[in-house]
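Rather than argue in generalities, we have chosen a single entry, letters for residues, whole numbers for local backbone shapes, without further comment.
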Amino acid sequence: MKQQRVLATKFTLMIIQLQHWLELTGFVVRTLRFVE
């Protein structure tokens, strides 16, 4: 049972990191378009 909780925590952290990367990528794309 404890192992499952650890996996769930790692999974949640991965999703949070993914959201941050998506926001960062979107920001970079917008900036590049603005520069052009």
In short: The radius of gyration is 16 Å. Residues 8 and 14 are 10 Å apart (CA to CA).
